Amino acid sequence: MSAVQTAPPRPVARTRSAVEAAVVVLVGALFALTFWLVRPPPRVAHVDIVNDSSSEVEVGVSGVSRDDLLGLAVALPHQTTRVEDVVDQGDEWVFAFATASCPAEEVRVSRQRLEELGWRVVIPEQVLVGLAADCAYQPPVR
Asked: In sequence order, which residues have a C-beta less than 8 Å from that of residue 106 and are 6 or more positions away?
């Protein structure tokens, strides 16, 4: 009988496992990059809005660029309204106050001042007076 010679097996498993490891590393890197790119903006735990008037006041906030006005809440009359988990507007916050029938009046407050006040915003008297004077209620015409 003659001996049959066979070639030694090729290390296929080693090449395949290296490719699989590279794919796993690449997928992990893509996930990490995606989560880094779409991370949520920084937030402030809460903002308290004090409304000493007898009217509801709509309150919004934006940064100085005023690109996006974030509607915070409707501040109820003679109450403090707490808004939780507010998107941080940066070093300068622009609050917009309005009523249902009156356009907004703006007030700028620095982030440092908000921190000093414990994230408490009192709707300024001059804003309340302006909203009341500019948009006094007028009964419907019959």
From this structure: 94, 95, 96, 97
- 95: its two tokens: 């609050």
Using DSSP, state whether 134 is helix, strand or coil: helix
Whether domain 43-134 has CATH 2.60.40: yes
> Taking the domains of the chain in order of start, what are their residue ranges?
11-40, 43-134
Give the count of alpha carbons within 13 A of 101, CB side only.
9
List, edge to edge, every strand of the sheet that includes 79-87. Answer: 79-87, 43-51, 120-122
How much is the pLDDT for 20?
Answer: 84
Angle CA 39–45–51, to nearest 5: 130
Report yes or no on whether pTM surpasses 0.90: no
Mean pLDDT of 99-113: 89
CA 71 to chain centre: 11
Nearest 10 degrees: CA dihedral of 133, 135, 138, 140? Answer: 180
**Phi/psi of residue 131, each to 5°?**
-65, -40
Let me know how many helices (H) and strands (E) the chain has, helices first. 3, 7
